[in-house]
Amino acid sequence: MKQPKSSNYFWFRQISSHRYRYTDVRHGAAMHFLVYLRKGRARFVGRDRTVTIEQGQFMYIPEGEAYQSYWQAEEEILFDSLGFHWFPEGDSAEYTMQIIPADDSMIALADAISQNRQVCSENLGYFFALLSAVVPKMATSGAEGDVLQKAQLYLYLHPEASIAEVAANCAISQSGLYNAFARSGWGTPNDLRQRIRAEMAVELLQTTDLSVEEISTRLSFSSASYFRKILKKHTGKTPSQLRKEAALV
User: Fold this and answer.
1) What is the DSSP letter of 163?
2) What share of the chain has pLDDT > 90, as a percent?
3) The overall pTM is greater than 0.90
4) What stretch of H or E contains 45?
5) How far is the C-alpha of 53 from the C-alpha of 57, rounded, in Å?
6) In terms of Cα–Cα distance, which of 64, 9, 17, 14 is closest to 42?
7) Given a cut of 80, is residue 64 above it in pLDDT?
8) What is the pLDDT of residues 65-93, one digit of tens each?
9) Nearest Cα residue to 237 out of 31, 20, 64, 73
């Protein structure tokens, strides 16, 4: 992989890993980062929030954010990592670690930067155009984004929780929670709950000898058949396929 140039203020890189990747940044991110995930999926576990990024999504990581990340893909993990120390026009808002809904223009700008990933005037022009498109979509601390992150963290801790319980924990009505998800592009609260339980199921399948029925019960699925259906929907694989993959690592 071609190594990018860097400067004191910007860092443009494309990173590739095979199937699994783990990073420990509990010392805190050295810069602000925009991440564009091209292949695979990842879960970022911070001090007070957990964020899951899917293929084709952008993510923002604040400078100083302490986190651990867990990445996986069928074959290749591939993502763009764009680091920077300051926002244009003196933007002093405190943004949270978050997913940012992508559009075609944002992806085109990320593609342009990835052509050589040098910190040069051309790529800086692309980057600031990308940042200008991203910032209006970002949630600041204490805003709607915190509701989404709180809902996600609560579901990681309580995968059996009802949507009513999630809403109550976020101090918001159920309709307000659904509206927040709809505006964010995250799908629905139930989509997120299914995705989180599928993630947990993969970990249990690949790290324990629990049966499919035991895992289904532990994660509060209504039946083993429904568990298999949700797992297939979110991973594209059956329990036996996931366990065979883990045995090959």
Assistant:
1) H
2) 45
3) no
4) strand 41-46
5) 6
6) 17
7) yes
8) 999 999 999 889 999 999 998 887 655 56
9) 73
Mean pLDDT, the chain, whole residue set: 86
For residue 190, report the phi and psi dihedrals to the nearest 5 degrees: -70, -35
Lookup result for tokens 């022009």: 125
* String of DSSP letters for 170-227: TTS-HHHHHHHHHHHT---HHHHHHHHHHHHHHHHHHH----HHHHHHHTT-S-HHHH
pLDDT at 27 over 90: yes
Helix or strand holding residue 158 (H, E): none
Residue 130's closest CA among 182, 88, 167? 88
Residue 68 exposure: Cα atoms within 13 Å on the Cβ side: 3
| Contact between residue 107 and residue 69 where contact means Cβ atoms under 8 Å apart | no
- Counting Cβ atoms within 10 Å, is residue 157 exposed (0-12), middle (13-18) or buried (19+)? exposed
Distance spanning both ends of the chain, measured CA to CA: 23
Note the pLDDT tens digit of each residue in 212-235: 999 999 998 999 999 999 999 888
Q: Residue 205: what pLDDT?
A: 92
Structure tokens at 98: 């978050």
The highest-confidence range among 131-140, 178-187, 229-238, by mean pLDDT, is 229-238
Q: Give the separation between CA 76 and CA 38, rounded to whole angstroms.
A: 10
Residues 164, 170, 171, 172, CA torsion sign: negative
